[in-house]
Q: What sequence folds into this?
């Protein structure tokens, strides 16, 4: 049986910048890099399809969906504060402050195209 991954497509303007962001800062590895058109990166069971202007996934996106939405991928970390410190030291800025709730704590960062990524630490039960 082939490996089962959950796939999410993010439309980006610069595929290589997106590959660099996800691999350098968020622990993704490259499965396929066909920049400038397309790249396929993975982290655990998440397959992130990065589609640039030359790809069919990008061209199939309706014009009224030209900006990043409120949807986001969700990445879990054991120590959210350490992750925030590491990313700030690397020069990244966050779109929100840390928000706490009954399920845990989260903060949002955006990739170079403005797509949101939720960094999450589950509450201790």
A:
């Amino acid at each position: 049986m082939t490996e089962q991954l959950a796939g999410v497509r993010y439309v980006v303007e610069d595929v290589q910048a997106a590959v660099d962001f996800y691999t350098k800062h968020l622990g993704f590895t490259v499965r396929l890099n066909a920049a400038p058109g397309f790249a396929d990166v993975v982290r655990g069971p998440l397959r992130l399809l990065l589609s640039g202007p030359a790809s069919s996934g990008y061209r199939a996106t309706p014009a009224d969906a030209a900006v990043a939405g409120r949807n986001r991928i969700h990445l879990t970390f054991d120590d959210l504060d350490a992750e925030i410190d590491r990313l700030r030291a690397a020069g990244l800025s966050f779109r929100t402050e840390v928000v706490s709730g009954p399920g845990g704590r989260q903060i949002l960062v955006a990739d170079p195209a403005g797509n949101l990524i939720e960094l999450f630490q589950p509450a201790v039960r």
Remarks:
- Residues 6-122 form a domain with the 2,3-Dihydroxybiphenyl 1,2-Dioxygenase; domain 1 fold (CATH 3.10.180.10).
- The chain has a mean pLDDT of 89.
